[in-house]
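Protein Entry — a single chain follows
Next Lines — sequence and tokenised fold
***
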Amino acid sequence: MRLDGKVAVVTGGTKGLGRSIAERFLREGASVVCAARNPHDIDTLLETSQGRARYCYVDVTDEDSLHKLMRDSSDTFGRIDILVANAGISKDGKVGRLDPAAWQSMVATNLNGVFLSTHAVLPYMEAQGAGRIINVSSSMATRVAIGAAGYCSTKAAVEMFTRVSAMELASKGILVNSLAPGIVDEGMGRSLTANDKVWAAYQRRFASRRPGRAEEVADAAVFLASAESSYVNGHVLEVNGGLLWA
């Protein structure tokens, strides 16, 4: 119960990695707000959470929507200790063919969404003199992937935003770190691992020779949210099983 009594807000928290992180936080004793534009099948989780989980609508590209999310979360559970800025999208396309609207949508969600989420939660964490912010990046933030200029670029920007935020907010008792998963069997990685031909091309790049499990990424998120990481700040924690990239 490493998060006993803590309150976490997880954006993109109703499916994929966000859902796995929310479930893991609940098992560690936290109360969790699963925030997303679509609830998906979150009711099954809420029914078994003994009142410690709730769903809230949010659009991370909308400042007002995020302020309402934080206000409702604080009103419901009394505080906000942890923010996991996980909401993200990926739209493929080489630079010459990438639709500018697709580029803008990735910037709006993957980068602006992280900034706006941080901006909205800060008053609550500053008031209590403590907080943890975990920005979900990707191993692709530091590796070239043909056809993924928008995704790679926005995730690289998230990691630098994390480092700058960590330096600025440490004096307020707020630690900011980034979680950078490799290819996992959930969310965006599921379609890749499900394609035998595509996965065969990627598999040799992994020292572990397997994709990660969503639970393994969630375990790392618990570490960054818990007292065990009290002297970890401005760090990008890669969870990729040993990823080689040519």
Observations:
- The helical segments are 16-27, 43-46, 63-77, 100-128, 149-169, 188-194, 196-203, 214-225.
- Residues 100-128 form the longest helix (29 residues).
- The chain has one domain: 7-239.
- The domain at 7-239 is CATH 3.40.50.720 (Rossmann fold).
